[in-house]
Amino acid sequence: MRLTNQLCAQHIGWHFKKHWLIQGKRVPRETGAAAELLRLSAQVRTPNDILAPKKERLMLDFIGTSPRAISENNANLKSDSTACHYYNDNSLLIGGLPQAQVLTNTIEVKTFPPKIEEAVANQKLPNGIDRNIRNAILSAHVLDAEQVKLPKIKLIERPAFNLPRNYGISHERINRLLVNKILHEIEKLAGRSLAVRRKLFDNAAFKASLNKDSDKIGFAINANKLVCSNRAIEGVKLKFNGNLPDLYPMKCTISIPKKPIVQNDFYPFRTDATCSHPHTVFSVFDTNLVNTHGSEVTTSQFQARTLLKGFVVAVARAKHLYGASSEGDLAKPIVVQSVQTDGRTFHFGVFQLNTLDISSKNSLKNYWFHRESYELFSKCGYEAGRAYLDNYNSDIFRILNALYCSS
Amino acid sequence: MLSLTRLLNSALTLQPPQRAVTAALALQQMRTKTKVVEKPQPGAGQQFRRIVHFPEEYTVAPLKITHLAGRDPVSGRMVAKGIGGGIKQQYRWVKWVRDGPGEGAPQEELVVEILHDGCRTAKVALVAVGDELKYILATENMKAGDVLKTSRVIPRIPVRPNEGDAYPLGALPVGTRIHCLEKNPGQQCHLIHAAGTFGTILRKFDDKVVVQLPSKREFAFDRICMATVGRLSNPEHNKEHVGSAQRMREMGNRPRSGLWKRKEGKHGRKIRRLPPMTTIAPPPSPKQEAIQLTLDL
């Protein structure tokens, strides 16, 4: 029969199917039966529990499988007693240098220790040294043969642009070459008598844990280059007074994430090793490192990182010397020099660990001697096929040389 | 009964059918059959632009998103037209609840940085308190270093609030500009979020506070509903020109047409008197879950 209006008026077609789509869904009316049954202490179960019971999966313990890692998003992290604030190479202090000072109970002194200031001012360098350093910078930044894909560049004002990928020398290699070449020049200047008293190490790991006002803080850092000496650096005898900066309403542990980790102390040398005294820590700043919230690293945060590198090495050394359970003021301060660079900017500092007690109540403070950061050059690259270096700053080599020679 | 005997007969007489043949038959039958797919209705607070991959715990790290291009993430069917493509932005998880002490001095928070968030029009502020970092919506004049106050106390005399402070509606003086308003006590502050918008406290009666929302409509809220003081940042947003068709595509909108209806008034001119003040109803009780009966028709 033809499908006409007359027919459709009589024909119910898919009516039942359509009707069932709506009527097949029912919301059970609340009768209070479940509550009554529970009151009579009867078990109430949904039909699905009986009709389609959940099959428990049997977990088999195979030999050789690695133990399951504890999830970092552990909900009980706050109540977990083993959880500690964990600072590593990728951590950044949001409060910058003031936060680092409060965290490590340290007073900032905006000059180097007198001995180093004197050495920087009075050292006599041969005439050709600046040319050698310029060559070292050029060979690290421009002339090295490594060609790898560099990180993607995104224009903020034109986010849809896909720029062609650049090839060049990787950031890690630039820094490694630069530090090695400059240290080589310094060693040549210092001569054999001093060079035998220093030893260089690559990628030395340091770990330490401390308690600060009811918070546990674990540190795990990596020194890209470590200079060790056969004698410890003498501490500064002068007394410095000052107050710690006020971070209110922030706590000093802000932006250091809490992790369920039991941090042990670790120092990479035995006590009886001849050159086991930490002298200078060189750390490379990874330019890809950004804050957790995605913002660029500020100068203050950069400087805080230098301080903490020196602090962690000093604490690891103190715990290595006096035992892991040692606390309180040190009989003899431990001095570690810290240098941080991103290939262009250099920041130097000297950390003096007077006490392992970093709680806010302790009146004895640690010292951090530093100057503002230095730029090694303003521009470096190829122009018309020739390597060029603009505004080379010779102060950096002078300071590095003074730091290397200090004892 | 008839069918039962037919079934028995067939089972006795016929050979067991081959598997491949039945599978092909089933597929053929499915092809001719219309599959009923339930699609959600557009609107009702749901947007089909993106899914944000929220982790279990709150974080200030920018979150990854997945573009939906107007599709329902459950059924995969198109729900909203005109959405698709665009720059992949990162989402910053704003903590809507401004929780302060119920008595005593207000909690103080420090603004660390004002940031641009690609997924919303207003700017967001990174705020530090204790050892916690969180995002809130930035107000017009907020800058890094500001100290904000948060409290749930309602004093007898209204407080003198600064921009960015969060108080209950009852604690704020009449005429205050507010944003991030709780609809009902305990609900997340989800009213007045767009760039440059603000609500105004008009008057108070009994335990209600009347607020004029950006739509110019007046609503009476409970006096313990939390609100943040000030006008939201980026007030020039509504005067900004898109500039080009390509910019529109970068924003994730597809070419559109046919929306302008002069006579019906849809997206057109329509001037009516505002409805009278409405008292906000308490939140609806949670819906009972429906049972799907499985009769195969």
Automatic annotation (TrEMBL), chain A:
GO annotation terms (biological process): translation
Subcellular location: Mitochondrion
Any one of the GO CC terms: ribosome
Pfam families noted in UniProt: PDCD9
UniProt keyword annotation of Protease present: no
Stretches of the chain forming a coiled coil according to its record: none
Keyword Hydrolase attached: no
The organism's place on the tree of life at top rank: Eukaryota
Keywords, in A-Z order: Mitochondrion, Ribonucleoprotein, Ribosomal protein, Transit peptide
MF annotations from Gene Ontology: structural constituent of ribosome
InterPro entries attached to this UniProt entry: mtLSU_mL37, Ribosomal_mL37/mL65
Family assignment from sequence similarity: Belongs to the mitochondrion-specific ribosomal protein mL37 family.
PANTHER family found in the cross-reference section: LARGE RIBOSOMAL SUBUNIT PROTEIN ML37, MITOCHONDRIAL RIBOSOMAL PROTEIN L37
Protein name as annotated: Large ribosomal subunit protein mL37
Organism of provenance: Drosophila pseudoobscura pseudoobscura
Taxonomy of the source species: Eukaryota, Metazoa, Ecdysozoa, Arthropoda, Hexapoda
TrEMBL record, chain B:
Single GO MF annotation: structural constituent of ribosome
Keyword Ribonucleoprotein on entry: yes
Highest taxon above the source species: Eukaryota
InterPro entries named among the record's database cross-references: NA-bd_OB-fold, Rib_uL2_dom2, Ribosomal_uL2, Ribosomal_uL2_C, Ribosomal_uL2_RNA-bd_dom, Translation_prot_SH3-like_sf
Compositional bias of kind Basic and acidic residues: 235-253
One Pfam entry name: Ribosomal_L2_C
Protein name: 39S ribosomal protein L2, mitochondrial
Organism taxonomic ancestry: Eukaryota, Metazoa, Ecdysozoa, Arthropoda, Hexapoda
